[in-house]
Amino acid sequence: QVHLVESGGGLVQAGGSLRLSCAASGRIFSSYDMGWFRQAPGKERDFVAGIIWYNSNTYYADSVKGRFTISGDNAKNTVYLRMNSLKPEDTAVYYCAARNGGRIATTKAIDYWGQGTQVTVSS
Fold first, then answer.
1. Is 110 in contact with 21 (CB distance < 8 Å)?
2. In this structure, are strands 117-122 and 10-13 parallel, antiparallel, or unpaired?
3. In the chain, N or C terminus with fewer CB closer than 10 Å?
4. What residues contact 120, with CB distance under 8 A and at least 6 apart?
């Protein structure tokens, strides 16, 4: 069993930056992918970024490439999402996600979810 707890959300002006953290309790095996989804009001939960835990390779949604960076700290069992050049359309609840044995690009494949953290970008 893996328990995920996000932190770091908040209110920021357009063009600003935030860093989200997701601390995992329980064992994160090398076979896991970790990452982030987001859900805006009235919209579906969409993939944002993922990291392959054993080799730290990363992958991103097109909408955040070049602006967001995902990283992981094996010793702390924590995954981060650095968000730069934020836009009002980035406003959403951001969810940490974990999957054992594959990419996390779809909500249907996720084994564990965090509770979410709100990110609001003002124009």
1. no
2. parallel
3. N
4. 10, 11, 12, 91
